[in-house]
Amino acid sequence: MPEVIFNGPAGRLEGRYQPSKEKSAPIALILHPHPQFGGTMNNQIVYQLFYMFQKRGFTTLRFNFRGIGRSQGEFDHGAGELSDAASALDWVQSLHPDSKTCWVAGYSFGSWIGMQLLMRRPEIEGFMSIAPQPNTYDFSFLAPCPSSGLIINGEADKVAPEKDVNGLVEKLKTQKGILITHRTVANANHFFNGQVETLMGECEDYLDRRLNGELVPEPAAKRIR
Protein backbone atom coordinates (compact mmCIF):
# COMPACT_ATOMS: atom_id res chain seq x y z
CA MET A 1 0.00 0.00 0.00
CA PRO A 2 1.53 3.32 -1.07
CA GLU A 3 2.94 5.69 1.55
CA VAL A 4 1.68 9.20 0.84
CA ILE A 5 2.39 12.71 2.07
CA PHE A 6 -0.24 15.39 1.46
CA ASN A 7 -0.81 18.95 2.64
CA GLY A 8 -2.78 19.56 5.81
CA PRO A 9 -3.70 22.77 7.59
CA ALA A 10 -0.61 22.62 9.89
CA GLY A 11 1.87 21.20 7.39
CA ARG A 12 2.37 17.85 5.69
CA LEU A 13 0.39 14.78 6.77
CA GLU A 14 1.61 11.21 6.40
CA GLY A 15 -0.76 8.47 5.28
CA ARG A 16 -1.25 5.05 3.73
CA TYR A 17 -3.48 5.01 0.69
CA GLN A 18 -4.95 2.25 -1.45
CA PRO A 19 -6.94 3.32 -4.51
CA SER A 20 -9.70 1.09 -5.81
CA LYS A 21 -9.59 -0.25 -9.37
CA GLU A 22 -13.07 1.22 -9.87
CA LYS A 23 -13.05 4.95 -10.64
CA SER A 24 -16.40 5.53 -8.91
CA ALA A 25 -15.71 3.32 -5.86
CA PRO A 26 -16.68 4.80 -2.48
CA ILE A 27 -13.98 6.24 -0.24
CA ALA A 28 -13.21 5.05 3.31
CA LEU A 29 -11.31 7.26 5.76
CA ILE A 30 -9.95 5.62 8.93
CA LEU A 31 -9.11 7.73 12.01
CA HIS A 32 -6.74 6.64 14.78
CA PRO A 33 -6.94 6.88 18.60
CA HIS A 34 -5.66 9.72 20.80
CA PRO A 35 -2.28 11.08 19.63
CA GLN A 36 -1.10 11.74 23.19
CA PHE A 37 -1.80 8.18 24.33
CA GLY A 38 0.10 6.28 21.66
CA GLY A 39 -2.53 6.45 18.91
CA THR A 40 -1.18 6.21 15.35
CA MET A 41 -2.41 5.05 11.94
CA ASN A 42 -0.52 1.80 12.57
CA ASN A 43 -2.76 0.88 15.49
CA GLN A 44 -3.88 -2.71 14.97
CA ILE A 45 -7.61 -1.89 14.88
CA VAL A 46 -7.05 1.03 12.48
CA TYR A 47 -4.99 -1.23 10.20
CA GLN A 48 -7.66 -3.96 10.26
CA LEU A 49 -10.41 -1.44 9.42
CA PHE A 50 -8.31 -0.16 6.52
CA TYR A 51 -7.84 -3.69 5.20
CA MET A 52 -11.56 -4.51 5.65
CA PHE A 53 -12.67 -1.60 3.45
CA GLN A 54 -9.87 -2.19 0.94
CA LYS A 55 -10.91 -5.84 0.52
CA ARG A 56 -14.42 -4.68 -0.36
CA GLY A 57 -13.27 -2.42 -3.17
CA PHE A 58 -13.20 0.95 -1.40
CA THR A 59 -10.55 3.58 -2.07
CA THR A 60 -9.05 3.67 1.41
CA LEU A 61 -6.92 6.13 3.41
CA ARG A 62 -5.56 6.13 6.93
CA PHE A 63 -3.21 8.85 8.13
CA ASN A 64 -1.39 10.23 11.15
CA PHE A 65 -2.93 13.27 12.81
CA ARG A 66 -0.66 16.32 13.18
CA GLY A 67 2.47 15.75 15.27
CA ILE A 68 2.43 11.95 14.89
CA GLY A 69 5.02 10.04 12.82
CA ARG A 70 6.01 12.19 9.86
CA SER A 71 2.93 14.42 10.12
CA GLN A 72 3.83 18.03 10.92
CA GLY A 73 2.22 20.26 13.53
CA GLU A 74 1.28 19.81 17.18
CA PHE A 75 -1.66 18.22 19.00
CA ASP A 76 -4.65 20.59 18.96
CA HIS A 77 -7.22 18.98 21.30
CA GLY A 78 -9.55 17.96 18.48
CA ALA A 79 -10.12 21.18 16.51
CA GLY A 80 -6.96 20.83 14.43
CA GLU A 81 -7.39 17.08 14.11
CA LEU A 82 -10.87 17.62 12.62
CA SER A 83 -9.27 19.98 10.09
CA ASP A 84 -6.68 17.28 9.36
CA ALA A 85 -9.45 14.75 8.68
CA ALA A 86 -11.28 17.19 6.39
CA SER A 87 -8.04 17.84 4.47
CA ALA A 88 -7.43 14.09 4.16
CA LEU A 89 -10.89 13.59 2.68
CA ASP A 90 -10.40 16.55 0.33
CA TRP A 91 -7.10 15.04 -0.85
CA VAL A 92 -8.62 11.63 -1.67
CA GLN A 93 -11.62 13.24 -3.36
CA SER A 94 -9.32 15.35 -5.53
CA LEU A 95 -7.78 12.10 -6.85
CA HIS A 96 -11.16 10.37 -7.23
CA PRO A 97 -13.63 12.94 -8.57
CA ASP A 98 -16.01 10.16 -9.66
CA SER A 99 -16.46 8.89 -6.08
CA LYS A 100 -19.81 10.18 -4.88
CA THR A 101 -19.98 8.64 -1.41
CA CYS A 102 -17.70 7.83 1.47
CA TRP A 103 -17.54 6.18 4.87
CA VAL A 104 -15.65 7.23 7.96
CA ALA A 105 -14.47 4.81 10.64
CA GLY A 106 -12.85 6.00 13.85
CA TYR A 107 -11.56 4.30 16.97
CA SER A 108 -11.69 5.99 20.41
CA PHE A 109 -10.57 9.65 19.92
CA GLY A 110 -10.82 8.98 16.18
CA SER A 111 -14.52 8.14 16.52
CA TRP A 112 -15.18 11.59 18.02
CA ILE A 113 -13.35 13.27 15.13
CA GLY A 114 -15.16 11.04 12.62
CA MET A 115 -18.60 11.90 13.98
CA GLN A 116 -17.79 15.62 13.75
CA LEU A 117 -16.63 15.18 10.16
CA LEU A 118 -19.91 13.38 9.45
CA MET A 119 -21.81 16.56 10.39
CA ARG A 120 -19.87 18.63 7.90
CA ARG A 121 -19.78 16.35 4.89
CA PRO A 122 -23.12 15.26 3.39
CA GLU A 123 -21.39 12.73 1.11
CA ILE A 124 -20.57 10.54 4.14
CA GLU A 125 -23.25 7.85 3.96
CA GLY A 126 -22.02 5.48 6.66
CA PHE A 127 -19.89 5.49 9.79
CA MET A 128 -18.29 3.14 12.29
CA SER A 129 -17.69 4.54 15.75
CA ILE A 130 -15.56 2.12 17.79
CA ALA A 131 -15.23 2.66 21.55
CA PRO A 132 -16.51 6.26 21.52
CA GLN A 133 -16.08 8.21 24.77
CA PRO A 134 -19.21 10.29 25.45
CA ASN A 135 -18.05 10.52 29.09
CA THR A 136 -14.93 12.42 27.92
CA TYR A 137 -15.96 14.18 24.71
CA ASP A 138 -19.07 16.20 23.90
CA PHE A 139 -21.22 14.48 21.26
CA SER A 140 -24.11 16.95 21.52
CA PHE A 141 -23.26 18.25 18.02
CA LEU A 142 -25.07 15.16 16.65
CA ALA A 143 -28.36 16.99 16.41
CA PRO A 144 -29.49 15.41 14.25
CA CYS A 145 -27.04 12.68 13.23
CA PRO A 146 -27.19 12.75 9.41
CA SER A 147 -26.18 9.16 8.53
CA SER A 148 -26.79 5.59 9.62
CA GLY A 149 -23.92 3.75 11.22
CA LEU A 150 -22.46 1.30 13.71
CA ILE A 151 -21.50 2.09 17.30
CA ILE A 152 -19.55 -0.70 18.95
CA ASN A 153 -17.97 -0.86 22.39
CA GLY A 154 -16.49 -3.30 24.88
CA GLU A 155 -18.61 -4.56 27.76
CA ALA A 156 -15.70 -4.13 30.21
CA ASP A 157 -14.47 -0.77 28.88
CA LYS A 158 -13.37 1.36 31.85
CA VAL A 159 -12.22 4.27 29.66
CA ALA A 160 -15.67 4.67 28.10
CA PRO A 161 -18.14 2.94 30.46
CA GLU A 162 -20.96 1.02 28.84
CA LYS A 163 -23.69 3.13 30.45
CA ASP A 164 -22.32 6.28 28.81
CA VAL A 165 -22.15 4.66 25.37
CA ASN A 166 -25.67 3.31 25.85
CA GLY A 167 -26.85 6.85 26.64
CA LEU A 168 -25.38 8.15 23.38
CA VAL A 169 -26.95 5.30 21.41
CA GLU A 170 -30.39 5.84 22.95
CA LYS A 171 -30.24 9.55 22.12
CA LEU A 172 -29.32 8.88 18.48
CA LYS A 173 -31.87 6.07 18.10
CA THR A 174 -34.74 8.51 18.61
CA GLN A 175 -33.81 10.38 15.44
CA LYS A 176 -35.87 9.76 12.31
CA GLY A 177 -34.50 8.74 8.92
CA ILE A 178 -31.35 7.01 10.15
CA LEU A 179 -30.65 3.61 11.69
CA ILE A 180 -28.09 3.28 14.48
CA THR A 181 -26.82 -0.27 14.97
CA HIS A 182 -25.27 -0.92 18.38
CA ARG A 183 -23.05 -3.88 19.23
CA THR A 184 -21.27 -4.73 22.48
CA VAL A 185 -18.28 -7.09 22.56
CA ALA A 186 -18.57 -9.28 25.67
CA ASN A 187 -15.77 -8.92 28.24
CA ALA A 188 -13.79 -6.56 25.98
CA ASN A 189 -11.87 -3.58 27.34
CA HIS A 190 -11.21 -0.25 25.58
CA PHE A 191 -8.32 -1.79 23.62
CA PHE A 192 -10.18 -5.01 22.71
CA ASN A 193 -7.21 -7.02 24.01
CA GLY A 194 -7.66 -10.59 22.77
CA GLN A 195 -10.95 -9.58 21.14
CA VAL A 196 -9.87 -7.74 17.97
CA GLU A 197 -11.02 -10.67 15.82
CA THR A 198 -14.49 -10.54 17.39
CA LEU A 199 -14.62 -6.77 16.96
CA MET A 200 -13.66 -7.01 13.30
CA GLY A 201 -16.20 -9.77 12.73
CA GLU A 202 -18.93 -7.41 13.91
CA CYS A 203 -17.61 -4.57 11.73
CA GLU A 204 -17.39 -6.82 8.66
CA ASP A 205 -20.89 -8.17 9.22
CA TYR A 206 -22.28 -4.64 9.50
CA LEU A 207 -20.48 -3.37 6.39
CA ASP A 208 -21.50 -6.39 4.31
CA ARG A 209 -25.13 -5.97 5.31
CA ARG A 210 -25.08 -2.28 4.44
CA LEU A 211 -23.45 -2.98 1.07
CA ASN A 212 -26.16 -5.59 0.43
CA GLY A 213 -28.86 -2.97 0.93
CA GLU A 214 -29.90 -4.18 4.38
CA LEU A 215 -30.20 -2.13 7.58
CA VAL A 216 -32.24 0.58 5.89
CA PRO A 217 -34.12 2.97 8.21
CA GLU A 218 -37.89 2.64 8.20
CA PRO A 219 -39.62 5.41 6.26
CA ALA A 220 -41.40 7.95 8.43
CA ALA A 221 -44.99 6.89 9.12
CA LYS A 222 -47.56 8.60 6.92
CA ARG A 223 -50.14 10.61 8.79
CA ILE A 224 -53.72 9.39 8.44
CA ARG A 225 -56.06 12.13 7.43
UniProtKB/TrEMBL annotation:
UniProt entry keywords in alphabetical sequence: Hydrolase
Origin: domain of life: Bacteria
InterPro entries: AB_hydrolase_1, AB_hydrolase_fold
One Pfam entry name: Abhydrolase_1
Protein name: Alpha/beta hydrolase
UniProt GO MF annotations: hydrolase activity
Transmembrane segments: none
Domain AB hydrolase-1 residue range list: 34-135
Organism: Rhizobium laguerreae
